[in-house]
Amino acid sequence: MIYCGIDWAERTHDVALVDDTGELLAKRHITDDAAGYKVLLELLAEYGDSEENPIPVAIETSRGLLVAVLRTGKRKVYAVNPMAAARYRDRHSVSRKKSDPGDALVLANILRTDMHAHRPLPEDSDLGRAIAVLARAQQDSLWNRQQLANQLRSLLREYYPAALEAFATWTNGLCRPEARELLKAAPTPTRAARLTRAQLQAALKRAGRKRGIEAEADRLREVFRAEWAHQPQLVEDALGKQMLALLVQLEAACTAADDLAEAVEESFPQHPDAEVLLSFPGLGIQLAARILAEIGDDRTRFADARGLKAYAGASPITRASGKKSSITRRWVKNDRLNHAGYLWAFASLPPSVGANAHYRRRREAGDWHAAAQRNLFNRMIGQLYHCLQHHKLFDENTAFPTELAAAA
Fold this sequence. Notes:
The protein is 59% helix and 9% strand.
């Protein structure tokens, strides 16, 4: 059997082929373009790569055009963690030398000796992979939006506390279009104090507000005209210009988050697993899309529910050595899936009587809030694995029979 290892880079890649005995059969230095990919595929075909007997490939990434080309057909691509590859490198040389061709050889030998210990990339459908791209991008845009909102809030505290007081009663505060429109109309507290009722009402209407405009304009006018401490005028004007520059970035982040959310809402319901995911309490389109993005739709990816729980970081891990033994939460996990799991467990408490009873029982047993949430997520993701495998919808009586009886 032949094994292939690829040490990838931004512009060029190093390829190595070895046989069962570890002998180096061929090595190439290819470019990161269509011509280089053609050379790679021709090299693999020269050494027996075919649809019936594809050559497995090890590489230190799971994305990019090179990986997309390699995943055509039935070829298995193994994404090896760079830290794991560095440990394997020490098995071949104690001098700690490193080179790109040598790393390609190390990756090929990883498959030759320990292919059973590594997993190939899951064979998700094109629609599932597209949803994963959109869901992760939407999640990143939300994190970016919140980071920019925190920077803007910190800046406003330095010279414009009236704005923070005015927007405190609004959900999402600085991310709302009303707040952004008012900050553009009055970037400094001095200019905000001069705003008339008509100007405030016009700003709220431009932001899309439909109801309670007059009352809200009166409240804002009172807040802006109250007594506040001020920076020197020149400093205040300079901080106002800095705020406007940051506001442009926040507005772009808000627009990107909204556009990506709409894209997820369009594509996710088309997936065959959407009906099963949305039947679970606490899962809406956005959160369900994030979970599908991380677990994929390849049913052979996880051997059982325990594997999925470990991948999500929901199940505990035992550390035992000699007479010492401890049970702790997992640190190595899929952080995106783990983050979505906490949101899912928290959102499932109001609509699900069984989930709420399970959470309360864990709290009464002495668990902290995070531990009880993690335990609930551990149980529900196991139920999700079963429902996806058999394409069944969530049933409250089957999922939480003991909790429902106790609650009754």
